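Objective 1b. Sequence-to-structure analysis of DUF4118 domain-containing protein.
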Amino acid sequence: MTQGAPQSLTDRLLHGLGRALMARRSARRQVALALTAIAVSTALRFALDRALPPGFPFLTFFPAVMLTLVFASLRAGLAVGVACGLIAWYFFIEPLNSVAMTSGAVLALGFYALIIATDVIFITAAGRALELRAAAERRASGLAHARSLMFSELQHRISNNLSTVAALLRLQSQQVSDETARQALVASQTRIRSISLLQRRLHSPDMQTLDAADYLREVLHDVVQVAGAGDVALEVQADSLPLPHDTAVPLGLIASELVMNAIEHGAPAQGPTRIAVALAVAPAARDGRVAAVLTITDGGPGLPEGFDLEATDSLGLIVARQFATALNGALSLARGTTGGTVARLDFLIDPLSPMTGPPTSI
């Protein structure tokens, strides 16, 4: 059953019986429960003696044995079974007040022993099965915890190694006199740091999906910080959409490259650099997949005349175009209706949940 889901009365009873079967009780408590079961079942059998027809000498003793097996222990249940059998034999099997070994008494006691043995076998087996299941769950929980720790440590080390490479590139850029080479090293450093931060976001091996709005907000905020841009106003709007890891990684890299490109080339003549990021979900699916559109708009001078995305030598746009291909998507850049540049990525997502809704503004 899913954790947190409401439980029915039957589920709660079964859960309680399972806990009772696996509980460990002191010898004193076992003796107390056994004596109580014998006394109550015997008193109840005497009280019902006149109301019951002949042939029910063990009627109240069967529940006593079963309850003792569940709430006390195997030994206590066997003791109650033997004691109740002797009481029924003496007081309620013909000839009464006697332990004469008649054929009727032998037959009745034989059936009683068979039923008690069956109860003992099934209840003991159920308790053992529950113990084995609990042990397996503990082992699985321990393995999952160890896996999570190893995954987090691996992510941490990879991210640290990438950060080290970025730091080396930064130091190298400070020693290069050629401006073109220096800018290339700085761009590479920024790109590697962005990948490092993206790696940190994917920190949990059990997290199968990421929320698009939160994911893009965090990743692109990191990109702005890493780029070291001065006055940048970043706005992210995204429909409620779950992203699987194999979509989130290339989408994050594409968005990062396009935002870095907007920071570099989309600054207006004066005022802050305004970048608007939007992720919209199409109302209808295609071939069982969800159609989504990512747009990144800046308020800069716009694209130069004759710009061709396929022929550009910008490393960032080349990387974005290649990852768009990996998503089976289409990337395009165009002039905005009011100026600036609009980058648009159309792609498809395999739906993992029916989570769709109005945009979340961040």
